[in-house]
Amino acid sequence: MLKTFTVLSAVLAAVYSQKVRDPYHDVQPQQPFYLAPTDKFFIRGGINPQENTIKYWHDVSSDIVRQRLQTIQRTGVAKNVILFLGDGMSIPTITAARIYLGQLNNEAGENSKLSFEKFPYTGLSKVDMVPMLDRKEINYLNETKKA
What we know:
Its EC number is 3.1.3.1. Its cofactor is Zn(2+); Mg(2+). InterPro entries: Alkaline_phosphatase, Alkaline_phosphatase_core_sf. GO terms for molecular function: alkaline phosphatase activity; metal ion binding. The protein is an all-alpha fold. The chain has a domain of 44 residues. Helices cover 38% and strands 3% of the residues. Strand 1 and strand 2 form a beta hairpin. The longest helix is centred in the N-terminal third of the chain and has 18 residues.
């Protein structure tokens, strides 16, 4: 019985993978695709054809560098600092959130930005396991690692 189920599952997976295309990758403009067998037929915008050129990516990176150079460099003492703590917000988690946000907006997702990534100044800090979780905020503020 288990052997029959395994073989049947493998056959169904092979047939299903041939019928369904990935809705978020290698989609050319106005190319139709299905999201799932139960979904209706969709036509989405797909990728920007200019993304296939080197010039597009050079222009995008030049614009980013130009924007960063135009921001005012503050060298004084920080005042009125707001500290956002995102416990569990590792780099893979943030990347997954970006992709999910893009997919919600019917895009590929890799180029999406989360709201806090648009702040002029951000940082990433990692605190190793602390025996008491309520001390994590104290460790961030005091730059200590005491148990």
